[in-house]
Design brief:
The complex is a heterodimer of chains A (199) and B (790). Chain A has 199 residues and is of the alpha+beta class. Chain B is elongated. Classes of the chains: A alpha+beta (199), B alpha+beta (790).
Amino acid sequence: MSARALLLGIGMMLAGASATAADTAPVASGPSAFPEVMALFAARTHGRVTFTEVHELAMLKQPLRSSGELTYLAPDRLEKRTTEPKAEALVLDHGMLTAQRGHRTYTVALKDAPQVLPFVESVRATLAGDTAALERYFTVDFTGEVARWQLTLTPRDAAIARTVKLIRMQGEGAAIRSVEILESDGDRSLLSIGPELPQ
Amino acid sequence: MNRPGMAGTLVWLLLAILAAVIATRTHYTTDLSAFLPRSPTATQQLLVEQLREGPAARLIIAAIEGGSPAARAQVSMKMSQALRRQSGFAMVQNGDAAGLEHDRRFLFAHRYVLSDAVTAQRFSAAGLHEAIAASIDSLASPEGPLVKPLFPRDPTGELLNILDVAGSARAPHSAEGIWSSADGSRALLVLQTRAAGSDTDAQQRACNAVRGAFTRALQELPQDQPGVRLLLSGSPVFAVEARDLIKGEALKLSAISALLIAVLLLSVYRSVPALVLGMVPVASGALAGVAAVALGFGAVHGITLGFGVTLIGESVDYSIYLFVQRSADWRRTLWPTLRLGVLTSIAGFAALVPSSFQGLAQLGLYSIAGLTAAALVTRYVLPAWLPETLAIRDLRPAGTQVARLIQHLHRLRPVLWVVLGAAAITLYLHRGALFSHELTALSPVPTSQQDLDERLRAELGAADVRYMVVVTAPNREAVLAAAQALGQRLAPLAEASVIGGFETPTRYLPGLAVQRVRQLALPEPTALAANLARALEGLPMDGKVLEPFLADVETARTAAPLTRADLDGTSFAAAIDALLVKNGSGWSALLPVAALGSGDLDDAAVKRIRGVVAAGPEGATLLDLKGEADRLYGGYLRQAVELALAGFMVILALLLVALRSPGRIARVLAPLGLAVMSVAALLAGSGSSLGILHIVGMLLIVAVGSNYALFFDRLRADPRDGSQTLTLASLLVANLATVLAFGVLACSRVQVLADLGETVAPGALLALLFSAVLSGVPRASADAVAPGGP
């Protein structure tokens, strides 16, 4: 019996939220700037930035704050290394997700983890300029222009919609500035991305 | 028919009826028992129990391939729903939510007695503060979405701790909400039968139930899915297939051999009565063999009947010698030689009887009884039945031609030195890998099936367990306590990545004492509330959120102890039944140890585990399943070699007594030795490593081949014997019959039968050839046998 499968299952069981499936609009809407932005992302091969994240949870009296570094290597390696308040790492590589906290390490296939998938795949697919991957899991709505844009992602899959209601990403050209995630239970997180770090 | 003939017939009839009664009332088995030792050592007993009753022996892996992913998922769901309702299965898992539901509920509901982190310190104010702070941190971590729904009831993270300790066994991949292979092309199910692995009938019913459920699920699909197939693997499947295979092969091979030999004899004799009479010793022998094994072993194994094909090959020879060389004084000329041949054969087979490998022991007894009966029928019953007018084709012309041929073969003597040299060199070159050392060499399961099994297991992450720590104690609580102690000392090895992890029954069912200690560690409601209030100071959490936690702890504190019955309906029930076993002397707990990554534990890791076991509770041992199985096989192999040598010595002694001349004995043995060496070299040269049945086959080459050598010896000793050409002709026919019977065996899909056949068939042929080449039939006598003969 896999620990991970059980944990995922218990999460689902206790969440029990009967989320409604996202509407099934087949393709992304948005002006021609969307393909252009995605093409800019697709042309990038790597990036390293700092981030700060604020998590607002209903059960906590004050938000949780964390910060660290994000590293991306095209097309499918994404590392999120948190340094504050506690060192931990989340590495996505070739569709396998490895989470490391303290002496614990978990590895799971991303597609097997519908609760974690939206948090990771939204950012990875955008960074890769992979429109098809984005549209596989989300209904994509693009507004703005290349210099300053906003992507709104709504989960298509019922399993994903059970955890995430909406993802709002803002950016400038081939750079993501912030990722806001509204969870189905009303909790919310905001990931703010700082300037590019030297390689 | 004269008076002695009448008496012989009467005795034969009585014995035949008696044997038939025994044969029809005996029990025929086709399970793996033939391959297991008769009187196992204590460790072998554990191995045998694991092979017959262990969890692995009850595990079926089903894979659905072809069709669309959605269709496979639907079939998988329908199958598991249907099979979960059947009483034959202790567990049916396909990775779906329904299957995991019970497991989840169980672990979560009993987390405070299952988690080894539950101590009084952890539920003090300071302990709670630390545990809750860690859990709050994890809320913001990547696993936050997973932890969040559990938090209000489990703020100390006991469930995570249980899962952590359970290890990070790789989960199968999922597709469409169910388990699938890594590439998504197969849906996977795991089933555990309730019945023991040794109950082949029950395993067959289980396999049929799975196939039936698959067919029905397929029919219920909205659209036709023509490409969807079901693959089954696992020990129960193997056991059933092996049984069907052995059953089918034993019948088929006997029938084909009998048919081929009948065709051979008919074409030689050109007489139906001769053919029918010739089969009497064969049938009598087979009946006697079955009856003897039934009496000696209490049951007859199917594989013994398969081996019995060899009996057809040899016992038919006797009547061939009788019919072809029939003369007034055959009792004086032919019978002594025939008798010596029978005795050498019996000596060869007698060497197998003491074997601890049951299949061999049965083969030995079967052949001794069969050959004795066939020889006695040929000597005392058959002659009285032969009509005066039994007309079989005159074989003298053929014999003359054989004699001429032998004259030419004579010139090949120098070639035999080359053969000897080549065989010796080949054997020397292959000396390192001459013998096979794995028990799987005996397995009746085809290699393709074994490969499929390995692949499916790898996809499931359910590697075959090789090492397990076994501990025994007089009662259940004592064995659970021992397992707990062992687990505590194995855990550091897992943490230090010496081993990948281990299973233990105490993970799902801790001993009553341990449960009591954990319950006592939980504070009473008022104390817990007070501790919690102080614990939350400085944490961004309102006590209100954690009210479900207080309620859950109180429920756990006052709950009745966890029992085996609470595990019903979870997949842990199957695990606990497999890991906690009641046996004759008490209880055993099994702690299977997994290697880091794939493959086996390395020597250093095994040494560390041995250290743990040595320091551990009394009655603990480390069982190396594969090593033990291979040692068992090694024992068989060593014994087979020893027994073959013993059989050879007996044959040598018999020849000494009968021939009384070292020169004659050497001439009899030289071609046999050369035949054995050549066959061994052929097998080694073609890439086979020699197994037990090859070695037994070599003994049989000597036993059967000595008949030929003895006849040639008689020709040489008594060259004026008029029946010479007929002797040669009958030798050739008899040899052909033997080669045919063993040749059919060589084509068997049961490995052990094929091994025997592929050794004896060429060996018998070479024994005759080499005997002929070395026979030294004087030229004069060959000339003397003009057509028509004396």
